[in-house]
């Protein structure tokens, strides 16, 4: 992990297209501004993990549906 120190209004670049700017500091919280291309999704980590969990559950459901459909077709023949 890279650890950098930044002051209010200072930025960090990630690659050529993503800029993180410190917008405000309030006690133990900071406000980050993120400037990135629209094709890059940006989520808080807990939201990102929830999305991944939901996607995995949906994938399992699709596999089960396909198995049931395959069994139904085999029985129909």
From TrEMBL:
Keyword set includes Iron: no
Location(s) in or outside the cell: Cytoplasm
Chief subcellular location: cytoplasm
Recorded GO CC terms: cytosol
GO biological process, one term: bacterial-type flagellum organization
Assigned keywords, A-Z: Bacterial flagellum biogenesis, Cytoplasm, Repressor, RNA-binding, Translation regulation
Entry-linked Pfam families: CsrA
Keyword Cytoplasm included in the entry's annotation: yes
GO terms for MF: mRNA 5'-UTR binding
InterPro entries: CsrA, CsrA_sf
Task performed by this protein: A translational regulator that binds mRNA to regulate translation initiation and/or mRNA stability. Usually binds in the 5'-UTR at or near the Shine-Dalgarno sequence preventing ribosome-binding, thus repressing translation. Its main target seems to be the major flagellin gene, while its function is anatagonized by FliW.
Family statement drawn from the similarity comment of this UniProt entry: Belongs to the CsrA/RsmA family.
Assembly notes: Homodimer; the beta-strands of each monomer intercalate to form a hydrophobic core, while the alpha-helices form wings that extend away from the core.
Designated name of the protein: Translational regulator CsrA
Organism this protein belongs to: Bacillus benzoevorans
Gene from which this protein is expressed: csrA
